[in-house]
Amino acid sequence: MSGVREVRVGLATCGIAAGAQRVAARLHKDLDSGRIDVPIKRVGCVGMCYNEPLVDVVDESGTLTTYGHVTEADVERIVAEHVLGGSIVEELRIEPDAFFANQVRIVLENCGVIDPESLDEYRAHDGYAALKTVLEEMTPDEVVEVVKASGLRGRGGAGFPTGLKWSFAAREDASDKYVICNADEGDPGAFMDRSVLEGDPHRIIEGMAIAAYAIGAAHGYVYVRAEYPLAIRRLEKALDDARAAHLLGENILGTPFTFDMRIKAGAGAFVCGEETALIASIEGRRGMPRKRPPYPASSGLWGKPTNINNVETLANVPWILRNGADAFAAYGTETSKGTKVFALAGKIKQSGLIEIPMGMPIRQIVFDIGGGIQDDRPLKAVQTGGPSGGCIPASLADTPVDYEALKATGAIVGSGGMIVLDDSTCMVEMARYFLDFTQKESCGKCTFCRVGTKRMLETLERICAGEGRAEDLDKLVELCQKVKQYSLCGLGQTAPNPVLTTIEHFRDEYEAHIVDRACPAKACKALIRFHIDPDTCKNCGLCARGCPVEAIRAVDEGYHVIDQEACVQCGRCEQVCPFDAVEIRTGKVEV
Amino acid sequence: MSVHSQTKEGVRVAGKPVMLPRSPSSVIPLLQQVQQDEGFVSEEAIEWVARYTGSSASAVYGVATFYSQFRLKRPGKHTIRVCEGTACHVLGIGAVLDRLTEELGIQVGGTTADGLFTLESVRCLGCCSLAPAVMIDDETYGRVTPDSIVEVLETIREGTR
Q: Does the model's pTM come out above 0.90?
């Protein structure tokens, strides 16, 4: 063997979807046959999802070589040339430096580095060191004070100061208290919680145990959405291992502290990300929010004081206790300390999971880390915060990412989804998309959320269909304000954000739909027509063969034409045309 | 014979023991267990869960219909879940879904006449970097196109022939 210490394969859901399982199987075949004899380690997501499947080869010296887009055939070369032969396969190697150069990894420090199913590896990376210090050397009040001093704020979206939240539950005098980890990651476009649970599950157990000690709870729940089976499986394994090692259960680490926790699988309801709805769901009821106060800190699960934190929030806790509040507060801005994990996706070259210090401008995230827009098209907007957030236009791309600055644009940091949009994305349609989401996910308790979102959706659908009316925009804004005002929980209070921000920043696009019956992004089917340019058409007939409704035919003049009556605007002709002869037109038909 | 039975060894679902307490907090995990074993939640199962947990059948039905995970109809042999997340949306899942409905001749929520496929949509699979994504049974397919997903269907069809 040629000095290779280990081979890592990224086996989180994203890697598996890209085919990493087959890559790992191929490596294991070589291991089983005795051809190679280096450990093959499964790791979580390192964040470079755009290069999946990923294989890291770590040399004895600790030097790490990363191979991207690895196929089964590539494995053969990596094994023969690098693992056995000792020389790097340059053609397959990727240079991740630019992607990581501007990142600071606190939450994700172990993701993609350690085997998530190995307690020993977690401990070798300072795992449970913070819990040990906390239990042996600190009082609960001191723990709360450190978290307060760090400036950590809730990473689930609302940004409430975590230490303050803990102090509320801590001061309650009750025989039973609960800590809950909210892993009901419902925002479409956000997957950091899944990555942490899949890549570093012990971190959440440690974070929860510290929170439980701080507030005086003996029981905990992790509420994980059912769509994350791998996360649940890895967390279950971690719980079993932690119990066996006396890191959970009675007299943890030989101290009087007793704490244990269970997993509750969600059943698919976006509203359960809201604290009181989540509690109702754990209690076995429909996940409907209730009026606050009383807040869960005084009356939560089974009526007992309950502290609820999001996965990413809890993942910060062990690091803060290990490195001190000041080290954490050294990152970030005046009001937003530490780092934030973002799921960078959409029309971006390098999509993936990134962790940046708070305060980094959006432009730097998109262009320096994300590598810019696909096909080098212009950046149009960045959508943050999912259905509760908003669209930040390219003109505000220098906005630093912190809670207050993003709020000023009408958007929010939210749970950390960051979807990059280019000029081919219609902002009216984007608002329609999010309203469709919130309207279906509204639990139905508050009238304005139940009916108001429905009316808003109908209006947006009408505008996208080219049937918008002059008064629609004013009515939409009025309804947005009412829905915000008269909804009990965050779902209804934030549902209008995608509409309000797109009207504010892209009003001309709405007006084009309503007045000119045109979709400037050429995305709304009802407002576009496909047209074959007779001069460019080579009469090859590919478009006609691909047309599902037989709307295309050849004419005697030697080119093809589209029957506009029959066309369903599926766009297949445009995709298959080798000569770019199919163009999309919008607006009123020129006579 | 009922799949939910009370035997000398205790309560069982599809032959497996039920370890959950007899309280309303067990409604969701029980429904999940039933659905995993039988593929869907039958009317009979709702009544049984109600009896076991001391809830009313209407409360259990309310829970089963509130959460999108539960199906009240028997699904096809394979379940196709089309991701409707934001990244998938902006990267063209719409065209993929259109092709699937065209190819299968069913809408979202439907099952093909031969009972082979059920078509569902899902809020977000969390594979946004591999968008657009489709999950078929337990396997996730990333960066799909209308053509590539039809090829996958063909492979599955051939496998069942």
A: yes
